Amino acid sequence: MTEALFTPFTAGDMALKNRVVMAPLTRNRADNDTGEVGDLHVAYYRQRAGAGLIVTEASQISPVGKGYLATPGIHTTGQVAAWRKVTDAVHAAGGRIVIQLWHVGRISHVSLQPGGQAPVSASAVPAGVKTFTANGFEETSPPRALTVEEIAATVADYRHAARSAIEAGFDGVEVHGANGYLIDQFLKTGTNRRDDAYGGSIENRTRFLFEVMQAVTDEIGGARTGLRLSPYSPANGISDADPTPLFTHAIQGLNRFGLAYLHMVEGATGGSRELAEGESIAALRAHFDGPYMANNGYDRAMALNAVASGAADLVAFGRPYIANPDLVERLRRDAPLSELDRETLYGGGAEGYTDYPALGAAEQGQAAG
Ligand code: 8OZ
Fold it and tell me: Whose CA is nearest to atom 4 of ligand 1?
């Protein structure tokens, strides 16, 4: 019997060969000056083309959207040409790949910003967390609030990045609305103290998200656009006074865009799946009409069950994909998973990046036996 996790699925315009997704993973190996990916990225993503869908590492939509050393961008012609080699390699290997569109907002440092300026956010509320700069881990710099004109320009940057993604050969984009970055900073009360049309009520705090989704879907179509949210995650010092009504409104409002999928971090990003009393991912998911991608701490049994039961259409695996380039094959055969090396997660070269082996032919025979 073929488990549903390994059967094809169509997400918007994207015909996927299975329901296993490689989640976005920041690895800090792009050229820090140009934001361009290189040959290592081509090899890394090609090795992982067995996934039904790859979501790339988060990639900044503009220079001010950058918040960590050596993350890639998707806004210059050089970045587009560099990513084209990755998308060609993944497609030649039979995979599908979308790029995650990222603006970090306040999760940045003056040394990473154009002209050494302060990072931007919904409001001038410091994050009190660390980022990764040329000097190692450093406290994020206090942000300033975007003006209404700058918000419009930022929406235009998302649109331009989405167009650039299609020019680079991506099958679509995933807008990063999660983990305490700019969109989340507008959504949640801990970071949004605005008293204009972008702050205060739930309608106002979701305005920026909806403007971004409108611009991106106008530009490339909803069927090539996904979105990642993390309603209950405290990642990057974010908080909201009452997240359930906020995300109920947000998710209901997303239905009009005909998205390829909604990707949810179910709990604390990279941490606990426990929720507070009255909070339920299933209840939020029920408001969404389109394909649902589950994420956060899934193992094989959880993923098989989530798809078989209909709780999820797709399951995104993050950390397991770092050390297991052939993760789908290992899940299919119920083969052991390799452990990742934490020392080589962020930055560096091929070590801990492209040198994790796939199952050997002999092991594959045994596991299949
Ligand atoms: C780990 C390190 C740096 C960035 C996220 C883009 O949490 C990230 C990220 C993760 O979404």
Answer: 26
